[in-house]
């Protein structure tokens, strides 16, 4: 089926009561299938970043998914602006996958469908046709041709069955076409990716229904016309598999993260999913994974483990730093990380030495208000009224004056300092580099332990003030290299 570009995409609007009920029931089915608890609402979550997307041809443009909306910079981190969740089309506890396409289109896979912005985040609309009201579980832009992207949708059919389909675009999300055959109804998809060196090779990760709830890869060598199942050892409904990356030159080499409790693991297959080897086991959540653009180096990270590096040829890991990165994105320009403001000294950081040290690109109080758009835009009419509450939550200080950025002049290494009072009291420019270099061999000391305790206490306090709602997102933490 085809959602034509000639159809009028539906703009972001309020959700009707019957539609909200249908969405809530479907969300509850997915949550129940995954065995997930219902956490606090989005406004009660501790402010944190969880994903960084980079424009494919403009390294100065970054987009960060945070627990309080999307954060955008057009100048390499000098100034950051806020895009509120409602204008994009998500809320609750959704952590949508977002990506840039070749012409700058931003796409977001949300519970209500595929949301896209053609003007930098000022206005958003949903893809029409069969993608309307379909839960977009994951999406991935093509690395070789970013005008192309694939996404996977899933909806509950009842009795542990799901309608799971692959869709793709080749025109910067102007239109979407259903690709190939539906997946088996007892398969619940989690992530999707296409091999950069072979566009016909596609992978889906997920898990099958009872009795053992086996985690598996679904592989296609004909762009989704047929699928072949490969079970992933050690995965089940308590340890779900997420695709980390596919080697840019070898379609048979794929990295998969197993998300479990209390620890995670990284697996690799070098034969297209026929066999797997466990190459890293974490102490806690393994939230960050990045593959260098040339595929030669692998990085993993988590709040309890710090950042670890290995050559892809040997996969023998060495600890690089104690930065507990919650996401990693590796581009030709730099390595980017999501950090804990209290523990790591930054919300978004940049490294030029493969994770040994970071300079802070964004502090939480350096967000300079809503994205600047025309008065008639969706963002101007929606986000402006919501900024006050967000500003109080994250402690932001409005930016003013020229050069009110957050990253200029920051050097690598050293210790973190709070935002300066330059540029008319903006608080958006860094006075010193972010704390980002920790001894690779030394365990965290007393200061780090205290910071962790303060961070946890803050999260608990916010969570207690929030109301509980069913989780609207069945995805795991950040999963893919940028």
From TrEMBL:
SUPFAM superfamilies: Oligoxyloglucan reducing end-specific cellobiohydrolase. Residues 1-42 form the signal peptide. Residues 1-20 are annotated as: Disordered. Residues 1-10 have a biased composition (Basic and acidic residues). The keyword Manganese does not apply. This is Sortilin N-terminal domain-containing protein. It comes from Sorangium cellulosum So0157-2. The keyword Ubl conjugation does not apply. Keywords: Signal.
């Amino acid at each position: 089926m085809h959602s034509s570009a000639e159809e009028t995409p539906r703009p972001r609007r309020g959700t009707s009561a019957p539609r909200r009920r249908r969405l809530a029931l479907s969300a509850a089915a997915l949550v129940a299938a995954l065995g997930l608890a219902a956490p606090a609402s989005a406004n009660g979550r501790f402010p944190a970043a969880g994903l960084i997307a980079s424009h494919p041809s403009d390294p100065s443009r970054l987009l960060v998914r945070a627990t309080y909306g999307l954060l955008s910079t057009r100048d390499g981190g000098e100034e950051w602006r806020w895009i509120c969740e409602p204008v994009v089309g998500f809320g609750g506890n959704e952590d949508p996958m977002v990506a840039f396409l070749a012409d700058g289109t931003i796409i977001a896979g949300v519970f209500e469908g595929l949301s896209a912005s053609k003007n930098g985040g000022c206005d958003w609309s949903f893809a029409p046709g069969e993608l309307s009201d379909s839960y977009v579980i994951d999406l991935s832009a093509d690395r070789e041709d970013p005008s192309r992207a694939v996404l996977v949708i899933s909806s509950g059919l009842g009795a542990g069955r799901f309608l799971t389909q692959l869709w793709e675009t080749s025109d910067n999300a102007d239109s979407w076409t259903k690709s190939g055959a539906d997946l088996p109804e007892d398969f619940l998809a989690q992530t999707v990716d296409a091999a950069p060196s072979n566009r016909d090779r596609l992978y889906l990760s997920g898990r099958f229904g009872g009795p053992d709830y086996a985690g598996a890869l679904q592989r296609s060598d004909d762009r989704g016309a047929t699928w072949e199942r490969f079970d992933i050892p050690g995965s089940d409904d308590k340890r779900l598999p997420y695709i980390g990356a596919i080697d840019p030159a070898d379609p048979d080499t794929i990295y998969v993260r197993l998300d479990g409790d209390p620890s995670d693991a990284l697996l690799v297959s070098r034969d297209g999913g026929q066999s797997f080897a466990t190459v890293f086991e974490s102490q806690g959540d393994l939230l960050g994974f990045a593959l260098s653009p040339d595929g030669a180096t692998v990085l993993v990270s988590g709040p309890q483990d710090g950042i670890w590096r290995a050559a892809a040829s040997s996969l023998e890991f060495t600890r690089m730093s104690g930065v507990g990165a919650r996401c990693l994105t590796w581009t030709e320009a730099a390595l980017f990380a999501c950090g804990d403001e209290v523990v790591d000294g930054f919300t978004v950081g940049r490294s030029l030495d493969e994770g040994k040290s970071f300079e802070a690109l964004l502090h939480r109080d350096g967000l300079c208000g809503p994205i600047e758009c025309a008065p008639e835009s969706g963002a101007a009419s929606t986000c402006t009224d919501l900024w006050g509450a967000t500003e109080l939550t994250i402690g932001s200080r409005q930016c003013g004056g020229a050069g009110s950025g957050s990253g200029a002049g920051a050097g690598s290494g050293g210790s973190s300092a709070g935002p300066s009072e330059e540029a008319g009291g903006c608080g958006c420019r860094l006075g010193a580099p972010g704390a980002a270099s920790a001894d690779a061999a030394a365990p965290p000391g007393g200061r780090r332990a205290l910071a962790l305790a303060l961070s946890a206490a803050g999260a608990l306090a916010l969570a207690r003030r929030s109301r509980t709602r069913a989780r609207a997102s069945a995805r795991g933490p950040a999963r893919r290299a940028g």
